[in-house]
Write a structure and sequence with these properties.
96 residues, mainly alpha
Length: 96
């Protein structure tokens, strides 16, 4: 769950904002390189695992956290975009 207390967010937000800038600073109309995003996420996950593991429980919990990140991103970001596109382009349920 990403909805942690503000005091905890304050610990990370500056560095996260810097990473976002680095990952998206490719100029106008240039999509971010998702390979770089994959690298950053992988280094974070692997680094935490190597520092605190190896442990099946930790690995399993980290996979669960990554899955929840994926689902929450879809729920909060992509689902509303898809709803907009249904309105703009029509629902597939109504096509024959």
């Amino acid at each position: 769950m990403p909805y942690i207390k503000q005091a905890s967010r304050d610990i990370y937000d500056k560095e996260i904002a810097e990473l976002v800038e680095k990952l998206t600073d490719y100029g106008a109309n240039t999509p971010p390189n998702v390979g770089h995003l994959n690298y950053v996420i992988s280094k974070l996950v692997w680094g935490i695992f190597e520092k605190n593991g190896p442990s099946y429980t930790l690995g399993n919990n980290m996979i669960g956290a990554l899955e929840c990140v994926k689902q929450e991103f879809y729920r909060r970001q992509l689902a509303s975009y898809e709803d907009l596109k249904i309105v703009e382009n029509g629902d597939i349920k109504n096509n024959s």
